[in-house]
């Protein structure tokens, strides 16, 4: 890596050949060893030497997963818009432990809490949902209460039928229940009322879109990421950040499952779609 930074131009192929083929633990050790050997932060070297799009992908890939989420969350709060779902993505697609680690990394990195920044930078119903989502520490097991699922599916159906999308009960259920419990609730919703809850959340309203992303991230994460990738690929040039983020954050988690879902939905391998 040191040699890749020296001389005329940066040897990006060499950087890829090293970092792209190392897992998170190996990348962390490389960073530590680089700092001990050369007295410099590898991330700062990468930031200084690489071009923008390639630089951002390499930087977020090189970070530890919790540091990466902290970095992405900070970027999302600084540039927050109502159509930016990165905060929902972090809050809903990570495990309870991963979200706690992301909050700790955010606190260490920014000297303030993630909840504090989200509350400051967001407004209205978006704030009402996002703050409890990023603050959540859900039960991570598989145990479910079917009576509770039945009762809360009824609550959700009543509120959504009345278009009371930001009702306290809707937010409480989505922000606190385990993913397994929510899955049971939404299955009962479909069985009892004959329609997938997402079909009733197709309003063009920005908050409804946020609710839809929340549910997909919690219960159908592979579908959520396929939609992000499809949008990024179809709007190449404007959505490189989204493409880089999904590849970097899911490569060591469930990218194979996401890629299979992408191919099933679009009849083209994900790699080929990205390369087109």
UniProtKB/TrEMBL annotation:
A Pfam family per the record: Annexin
Q: Which PROSITE patterns match?
A: ANNEXIN_2
Q: Does the keyword Transmembrane helix apply?
A: no
Transmembrane parts of this sequence: none
MF terms per GO, please?
Answer: calcium ion binding; calcium-dependent phospholipid binding
Keyword Protease set for record: no
Q: Which GO terms describe its biological process?
A: response to stress
Keyword terms, alphabetized: Annexin, Calcium, Calcium/phospholipid-binding, Metal-binding, Repeat
Q: Which residues bind Ca(2+)?
A: 5, 7, 9, 49, 233, 235, 237, 275
Query: SMART domains under this entry?
Result: ANX
Report the family membership. Answer: Belongs to the annexin family.
**The protein, known as:** Annexin
**Species annotation:** Solanum tuberosum
Q: Tell me the organism's taxonomic lineage.
A: Eukaryota, Viridiplantae, Streptophyta, Embryophyta, Tracheophyta
């Amino acid at each position: 890596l040191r040699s890749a930074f020296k001389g005329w131009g940066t040897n990006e192929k060499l950087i890829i050949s090293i970092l792209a083929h190392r897992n998170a633990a190996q990348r962390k050790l490389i960073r530590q060893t680089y700092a001990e050997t050369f007295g410099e932060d590898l991330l700062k070297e990468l930031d200084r030497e690489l071009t923008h799009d390639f630089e951002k992908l390499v930087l977020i890939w090189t970070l530890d997963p919790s540091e990466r989420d902290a970095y992405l969350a900070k970027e999302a709060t600084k540039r927050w818009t109502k159509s930016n779902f990165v905060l929902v993505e972090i809050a809903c697609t990570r495990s309870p432990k991963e979200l706690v680690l992301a909050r700790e990394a955010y606190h260490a990195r920014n000297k303030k809490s993630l909840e504090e920044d989200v509350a400051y930078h967001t407004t209205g119903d978006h704030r009402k949902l996002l703050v409890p989502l990023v603050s959540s520490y859900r039960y991570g097991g598989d145990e479910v209460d079917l009576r509770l699922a039945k009762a809360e599916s009824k609550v959700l159906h009543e509120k959504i039928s009345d278009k009371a999308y930001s009702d306290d009960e809707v937010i409480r259920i989505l922000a606190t229940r385990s993913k397994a419990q929510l899955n049971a609730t939404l299955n009962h919703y479909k069985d009892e009322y004959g329609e997938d809850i997402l079909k009733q959340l197709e309003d063009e309203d920005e908050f409804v879109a946020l609710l839809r992303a929340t549910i997909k991230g919690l219960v159908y994460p592979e579908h959520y990421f396929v939609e992000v990738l499809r949008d990024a690929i179809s709007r190449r040039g404007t959505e490189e950040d989204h493409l880089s983020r999904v590849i970097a954050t899911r490569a060591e988690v469930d990218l194979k499952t996401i890629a299979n879902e992408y191919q099933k939905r679009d009849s083209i391998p994900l790699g080929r779609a990205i390369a087109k």
